[in-house]
Amino acid sequence: MKIQSIKGTRDIFGVNLKLKRFIESIFLDETSKFGFQEIETPLMEDVSLFKRSVGESSDIVQKEMFLINDDKDSITLRPEGTASVLRACIENSLFDKLPLKLSYFGPMFRKEKPQKGRYRQFYQCGVESFGEKTYGADLELFLLISNILKKLNITDYIIEINNIGTNDEREEYKKDLYAFFKQNEDSLSEESKKRLSSNVLRILDSKDQKDIDLCLKVPLIQNYIGLEQQNEFLKFQEMLLKLNIPFKINPFLVRGLDYYSDLVFEIIDTSNNLGSQTALGGGGRYDKLIEDFSNKKIPAIGFAFGVDRLMLCCKAPLTNNPIKISLNSTISDLIPIFLKTKNEFPENFFLDVNLNYNLSFKKMFQRADKISSDYVVIIGENEYQKNQFKIKNMKTGIETVVDISDYSDIGQLLLNFLKTT
Length: 421
Ligand code: HAM
Hints:
The protein is of the alpha+beta class. 38% of the residues lie in helices and 22% in strands. Strands 1-5-6-11-10-9-7-8 form an 8-stranded mixed β-sheet. A 5-stranded mixed β-sheet has the order 13-12-14-15-16, sandwiched between helices. Strand 3 and strand 4 form a beta hairpin. Helix 1 packs antiparallel against helix 5, helix 1 packs across helix 11 and helix 5 packs parallel to helix 9. It starts with 13 loop residues before the first helix and ends with a helix. Histidyl-adenosine monophosphate binds next to strand 6, strand 10, strand 11 and helix 11.
């Protein structure tokens, strides 16, 4: 039987791995500039953590968790990072010092139908900011998002925003929304009929055309939100305009996780690079969640990017390819000297050492060609006797002979040679 990777997982190597690491380094640089400290939490958590935060009726809890079959079925691979970070903060008393700003990068697991940009093991990089309830904290995250995307040269995006009110306001809204959909039940898709009693808000972001048509007539959450909150939301939008952050209001954006209140947002790719999975990331405020777990009233806001999706959209060139020089010799004594030279050579060059001194010159060149060397150094018996080395520019084909009295100086001579060519 052929052993294959698990459905929805993939191997990441070569240029793709470089790209993932590049995204990670940009993410960590930018978040640390904004004062975020990195945290790592386990890949496994108690199922009830997500039931109580993401919500019993969410798709994640209903059908997407990878449960680990211990006796009580109580462990799951983590489907997202926010709940884990929150648990870690409570368990390690990190909320004793506020404000607290944490960042994370790592794999998440959801049993979704795999497609372009959607995997069962995928990567998220995200931040959680605890202790600030001003729209300044919201703005800071949006600035961070736009800085990260700029560094990745991702320009085709818009941030969809919505205000989904406080928990009480949303409860009022849900009642009216339920009444509206109940009256029009025949016009709903089959999936949304099921959601009517379990999670009526999610009907708003259904992708089914029947639901989309009906949603054009629904009462809007904006009419249920207090005046003060509406004003704050307006001020927030003015600031976004001033900072040139591309956004639009999507009154149907509710997000699939239950812990949000007030501001929610999704970063939407507009380049068509992602097929039907257009959300590069998403987040929002969750001012009530910590209270549910610890009785402490701590406002919070966060977001997470889908790294796999950033990889599909990133247009930034990876760090410049360094000049590659391949060192070859038929003299075995030179190999340790080559290795020492490699160890001490400046990092902006790539010094390759061919360890096999038994190859013919032809084979040495073929090998260097295969690994795309820019220069090939050859020291055969002849050169060794004359205290010389030969260096060939693989692009121009020009060969140069260089005199060398002590082969341990080869690194310095190579650098001098590269400077003059
Ligand atoms: P989320 O919207 O579920 O939010 O996920 C955030 C991002 O992760 C998505 O926008 C998408 O780019 C990526 N993503 C989600 N599922 C998959 C998948 N199956 N394959 C590939 N990428 C995927 C959260 O997880 C919240 N914890 C974000 C947050 C942080 N809210 C507050 N703080």
